[in-house]
Amino acid sequence: MLYGAPATRRRDAQRNRAAILEAASEVLTRSEGFALMPEIARRAGVGQATLYRHFADRHALLAGVISYQLERLETHAAHTDFRTLLRETLHSLVSLRGLVSLARRLDPAAQERYLHRVIAAFTGPLRRARDCGHVRPDLEPGDLALLFAMVQGVAETTTDVAIARAAADRSVDLLLEGVFRPLG
């Protein structure tokens, strides 16, 4: 029996960490500010002590949520075509605008590291799309930061999420028309 206990705790700890990150991600999609730690613990179905064992403070939790979202993007990017990946990512800037807003308050070095991971996730799909002639030949991975900033700027023009989403949807459509070559 003693040999099975540590493995069980590790699985429980992994499950708790994932639940905390998912709950924090959900909370951050609904608000511009950072939620209280007790609310995130409640939504994750864990006690506050468990939350604080995984994330010592809000900054650690924010870093964990950003890394969690980036891991999801990196996994998705490996199996998704560039057009779909770009459209979904641009739309996620609206739904995750609370998280993006918090991330923009981080020190510039941290922001640069996170942006580098996003750009790196797009590099393979962009290269394949460019090789097939689906996108402008002069589109570079670094240009994506400009596209992200444009959509984020549109998303931040109002506090009404529905209006922001509609404006961002339109801007995504306009941006994609400038990035992709016509089919056929």
Automatic annotation (TrEMBL):
The keyword Transcription regulation applies. Keywords: DNA-binding, Transcription, Transcription regulation. Pfam families: TetR_C_43, TetR_N. Residues 14-73 form the HTH tetR-type domain. PROSITE patterns: HTH_TETR_2 (PS50977). One of its GO terms (molecular function) is transcription cis-regulatory region binding. Residues 36-55 bind DNA. The keyword DNA-binding applies. InterPro entries: Homeodomain-like_sf, HTH-type_TetR-like_transc_reg, HTH_TetR, Tet_transcr_reg_TetR-rel_C_sf, TetR_SbtR-like_C. It comes from the Bacteria. This is TetR family transcriptional regulator. It comes from Actinoplanes lutulentus.
